[in-house]
Structure formats: C-alpha cells, structure tokens
Amino acid sequence: MHNPQLNKNGELQHLLTIEGLPKPTLHHILDTASSFVSVSDREVKKVPLLRGKSVFNLFFENSTRTRTTFEIAAKRLSADVINLNISASSASKGESLLDTIDNLAAMHADMFVVRHSQSGAPHLIADHLRRIKHHHVHVVNAGDGRHAHPTQGLLDMYTIRHYKKDFSQLTVAIVGDILHSRVARSDIHALTTLGVPEIRAVAPLTLLPGGLEQMGVRVFTDINAGLKGVDVIIMLRLQNERMTGALLPSAQEYFKSYGLTPERLALAKPDAIVMHPGPMNRGVEIDSVVADGAQAVILPQVTFGIAVRMAVMGILAGN
Fold first, then answer.
1. Can you give 58-84 as a three-state secondary structure string?
2. What is the pLDDT of residue 43?
3. Structure confidence by residue, pLDDT tens digits, 38-73
4. Spatial separation of the C-alpha atoms in residues 154 and 165, rounded to whole Å
5. Can you tell me the distance from the alpha carbon of 49 to that of 111, in angstroms, rounded to the nearest whole number?
6. What's 206's DSSP letter?
C-alpha cells in the first residue's frame, strides 16, 4: 500500500499522521529539530530554509496555541505566513473545502497547515492536490477531529528523547481523556514505532476507546497502579466541552480519582517527567504543585514544539 505521505523516493511529501511513518523518518524529523535548538535549550535558531515560500495556516477549528507555534516556526524559517481563520469566512458562505484549496493553490501557496474538526480533512486535501497535479504543495495536519495531531506527537517524542535519551527501556503512561484525544493516538503510534516497550493508558472506562490492547497498550482504570514505576507521564486535557452527561460525574470527582497530585507522582520513578499538551485545566487533571514542579517539562515542550514544526516544514519544502 502506497503511503500518501511519502513521494516515490520515500521522502516526506505531507505530514498527515504518524501512523505508518517509518522509524528513520521519525528520527530524521527529531534530529533536524535538534539542530534548530540552541545549546542552552532555551531558544530556537533562525534558519532561512523557506525564504520566498508561502505557508497558509488554514484553521477551520480554533486553536490559538497551535496556530501561533506554526506561525512562529514558519517565520523562523523565513517563510511568508498567511493566517486564514476559515471558520469565519468562505466556509460560512457555502464554499466547499476543495474550492477554498483550489483558490489558495492558485495564489501560489507552497504549504497548507490544516486544522479541521472533521477527521480525514487533511488527507482529502492532500489527495485533491495530487489529482490536480499540485505536487509542489505540501500539507501538514495540525489536528483533525479525533484522528491525529502528528506535530504534537512528534514534539512529545522530542521531549521524551531530550530527557530520557533512549526509547528502548521506557514505560510511558498516557492519562486522561484518551477517547477524545487525537494527541493520544499520535503519541501511541509514535511510541510504538520508536520501540517503547511499555505504553500504558490510564483512564476511567468511559474515556477509554476500544482497540487499545490490539495496539499493544496496557489499559489501567486505577491511576495508582497505572503510574507505578513509570518514566514518563503524559497528562491529557479533559475535553471540558464534552464533560457533561454520562461520561463523568464532575470535574471535582475526576480530580479525586484521576488528577495528578504530588502523592500520585511519587508512585512513578523518582526521575519521571510530567508532560501535558496544553492548555491545562489546573485542579482538574493536574495539581498546580505538579504543573509548576521540578518534574514538569510542560514549558520546554512548547519551545521544542517550535523546533519540531520548523523541522517538519523544512523537510517538506526543502526536499
């Protein structure tokens, strides 16, 4: 089966999902990102790889944080960045997704960064570009429905590699609203490909999707058992907008059963790191003491996210 993300030479043409990407491709992205981070790890360098190229941020779904990091990353690469808040424009006038793409492709776009509430929208766009022979235009999935969020998965892998050096000995726990999380899916595919021997999903039954065991994931409904002896804890945002109804009694109840407190963190290895894709709900999925504590690497994740997004765009457009 041909992977639509790779060109005939096996090089990255689009980044739509981590699922199915070969291990060397993941390492290539992480190594490239690493070359953009300064020695102090505080800063991301400017690298003019995309001078003269146009990057269109197409956000059919709101996200200030992801859009901002893509914009900063593109500007660090010296690209021209055009932000389109589509939810407010053409879509509401009844223009179809692919009509919008045709019009923007006619404006000599080199890259589309797409976030969409429908799973599969970035694949649809990539397929359409292939059919209309716009092979020079690249698509980056910035999150589609419940399906995938590949750059978040990659920046999570970068963060783990930065602090733990090697994937082959780790136990990683992903905790929280796994059912609604495209980040969890991307992380699980990436961790599996990179050879992490034990991946745990920790959540109440109502927030666990089916099929995790088939993906090689160990499922825990008891957080104390799930965190015992782990090296990495990835906390997920409770999708508060979906918190009502039968899934969960209340945010307070959730915190009592599944919130990451200092006591629960103490069950993990002493040098375990705590990650979170943000934005955090303090006092719901994570205690402020933990979020601001020495083991949290939540702010470095944001810095690394810029380098990883630069790497993805640089590899796609630099081929």
1. EECCCCHHHHHHHHHHHHHCCCEEEEE
2. 84
3. 877 678 999 999 999 999 999 988 788 899 999 999
4. 15
5. 13
6. G
* Measured CA angle at 307 (ends 301, 313), to 5 deg: 130
**pTM of the predicted structure, to 2 decimals:** 0.94
Q: Is the dihedral of CA 136, 140, 144, 146 positive or negative?
A: positive
**Helical residues (DSSP H) of the chain, grouped into ranges:** 23-36, 64-76, 97-105, 121-131, 150-164, 182-193, 223-227, 251-258, 262-265, 288-291, 298-318
Q: What is the pLDDT of residues 120-131, one digit of tens each?
A: 999 999 999 999
Please say whether the beta carbons of 81 and 71 come within 8 A.
Answer: yes
CA distance 307 to 167: 20
CA distance 110 to 80: 10
| Inter-residue contact 64 to 91 (CB < 8 Å) | no
Sign of the CA dihedral running 306, 307, 312, 318: positive
Nearest one of 17, 30, 269 to 160, comparing CA atoms: 30
* 253-278 pLDDT per residue, tens: 899 999 999 999 999 999 999 999 98
Q: Give which of 163, 185, 159 is closest to 174, Cα–Cα.
A: 185
Side chain identity at residue 78, one-letter code:
S
Closest CA to 85 of 60, 106, 103, 107: 60
β-bridge partners, 138: 111
C-alpha–C-alpha distance, residues 288 and 87, integer Å: 34
The DSSP symbol for 296 reads: B
Q: What is the end-to-end Cα distance of the chain in Å, rounded?
A: 23
In DSSP terms, which residues pair with 218 in a beta bridge?
200
